[in-house]
Write the structure tokens for this entry.
Amino acid sequence: MLNVGSENFSLSRRTTAPGRLATIFSGTGAEARSLAVSQQRQVFYTAIPSGKFVRVVCAIDLRSDSPQESIYAGGGSLPSGTGDDGLAAESRLVNPLSLAVDPESNLYIAEAGDARTNPGRIRRVNSGQIITTIATGLAFPVGVGVGPGGQVYAALSASQQVVRITSTGNVTVVAGSSNEQSCDKVSLPTCGDGGSALQSYLNIPGSTQLRNITIAVDGNGVYLPDDDFRRVRYINVTGTATTIAGAVTSAGTINTIAGNGASRPFDNVPATLSELQRP
């Protein structure tokens, strides 16, 4: 945990001074990644627990003085099906790669699936730990985020697109061209910056890499770490322009708000002139 405040912060009987980094829990699972934290101080992450061979969603409760790691979703031994409408810990997950939590403590899981019989899905686990699927047939989702109004966004690796998922399960592309290809920075150095988000090209990690990304959502759009493009881009999904870090993103367009794709660090300069390494 990094304390970015101006006072000491205590959690699970550990006190961290301002500006200090401290370990508050050491899990036993391998390849832990994709951290998400609820307002109730529950910490979720994906990992491969000791003695298992599949990635699951683990959880620890930092309200406890002695937090314990447990399987929160996945790891079930179902003969068939996904375990929807049952307990999340007894469900089946195939390559859960990214997590997000909404203000009501619902956990969203980007389940990438595989190239054979398991399509990509976005799963939701409610506060009662019941799991459901809110969208399926997705092209290897590796990132998920939740907006203020409850709309869910997912970054799709296989189609190089970002989609919006409504509460009724409708899926709409908000960024990425219909060509479903990553950006060729030689022929298109800007990858479509400043133009229509639906005609842009993205650099979401490929399905063979099994890497997740963390996307963020506000009331106007989506913050996308664009990996090999070495930039953070903003997708404006509203009808009016918005300005972030000095960069203007017009309605329905995509634009870089941090990073410039260069190979050297540039500190103390405008955000769009700085260097990022796999944001």
